[in-house]
Write a structure and sequence with these properties.
With 335 residues, this protein is an alpha/beta fold. It is 33% helix and 17% strand. It folds into 2 domains: 212 residues, DHBP synthase (Alpha-Beta Complex); 95 residues, 3-Layer(aba) Sandwich (Rossmann fold). The chain is built from 11 helices and 14 strands. Strand 2 and strand 3 form a beta hairpin. The longest helix is centred in the last third of the chain and has 17 residues. The chain is globular. About 2% of the residues have low confidence. Bound molecules: threonylcarbamoyladenylate and magnesium ion. The site of threonylcarbamoyladenylate has 31 residues, from strand 5, strand 6 and strand 10.
Length: 335
Amino acid sequence: MIAEILPTHTAQLFNAAVTRAAESLRAGEVVALPTETVYGLAANAWDAKAVAKIFAIKGRPAHNPIIVHVASVAMARHCVTDWPAPAEQLAKSFWPGPLTLVLPKSSAIPDLVTAGGATVGVRWPSHPFIQAVIRKCGFPLAAPSANLSNQISPTNAEHVRKQLSDQLNLIIDGGQSQVGIESTVVDLTVSPPRVLRPGMIHEESLVAVVANIQHSTSNSQHPTLRSPGLLKKHYAPKAKLMILHWTHDADLRRQLENSESQIACSHIIAHTHIPTGTDWGGVSVIPHDAEAFARALYGELHRGDEAGAELIVVEAPPETIEWHAIADRLNRAAS
Ligand code: TXA
Ligand code: MG
């Protein structure tokens, strides 16, 4: 099997791709779709057999639940048995967008989707393509990120093709994912509500809407059971990844003296202190801006891997709240 990749950059192509994707999804197939965070591997969330294919394609462990994507609050409410005030407030403020709400699951959601758990994560994504497909299908879509388990999430169709082309019939090219890292996941089944996975909608924005939300504890081992995506080793490139501070080339070189990798096999990702030497294996420059950095980060990690880097060195992000989710993903990839 070699996946067909459908473009969506004109109205005609967009509509034709929506029709094709919806046909496949109705037939119980898995389709790779764009979202604003990362690309997703989607199947009919009501259909356990279709969802089982997602686990098989990704090599995903059965204990890791899958987020259900909806295209309205009404559809979200079909997936859950309780819609508390914080859900209403957060949905009003941040949907459609990169926020997943964990709530008690309804019987319409097969146990497989939630890994046997009593809760389900629901999200209304803002990307127009996946919205149009969900509306056309009339059912919600279960979709994890469209990568092999434990690899970097895809932020464009080419990333999906490289990892999964031989296991899919259809990949929809909806352009570069505009957020670039996975959604913020908030558990509303505990009191006070808790952030299980930080994302670009950060805790201060959430707290402005629902006052008592607990901060995520990215270094504690405890959330791993509630949200397996928080397992420490996750989102990892093939290369070894280090996060370093440096002020100039010589400073960076000195810090790498003890590492086993040669300068020529090292890929540097910088946002502020740009290396000047020409002997680095590769250098990526991303603007010193949290949103721009998040958008570009996974693409640059993919690039480092493809260039065969042994070591990827990322310039440490600032410690401000806007960079929190980026630091979280980097720390996991480096561990
Ligand atoms: O932005 C995103 O969320 C992307 C796009 C495709 O929507 N999806 C995504 O899915 O990142 P995935 O499967 O790669 O990560 C989902 C995360 C995992 O950490 C999983 O454990 C957690 O969400 N999760 C899903 N359902 C949950 C639940 N009921 N309770 C706790 N955590 C849950
Ligand atoms: Mg993932």
